[in-house]
Design brief:
The chain has four helices and seven strands; from the N terminus they run βαββββααββα. By secondary structure, it is α+β, with helices and mostly antiparallel strands. It has one domain. A hairpin with a 4-residue loop joins β6 and β7. The protein is globular. The protein starts with a strand and ends with a helix.
Length: about 100
Amino acid sequence: MRFVDDKSFRAKLVALAKTAEGLKLGLTEMGEGHFLVSSSKRSFKVVLALTESGNIDASCECETYKNKNLCVHIAIALKSKYDLATNSFSLPKLSAMLNKII
């Protein structure tokens, strides 16, 4: 799903990241743009990339995401890749990730 990186998205992201911290989710970067977000009961795969227009392409295996909503798993992974100095996310380009698949 593609998320527009705007003020509304950033506000949701901050709120969900705080929730994720309270849930004490673990985060493991499996490779460039690929993450495993874990709780004591379950783990979810998250994939993140930047589109050519600078928006965020993300996917997660959880039910919240499947219902077309931003989830805590995506939020905590994005928070880990946020660069305060540039006010941007350090993520691979979507086109580069797709080229690896092909």
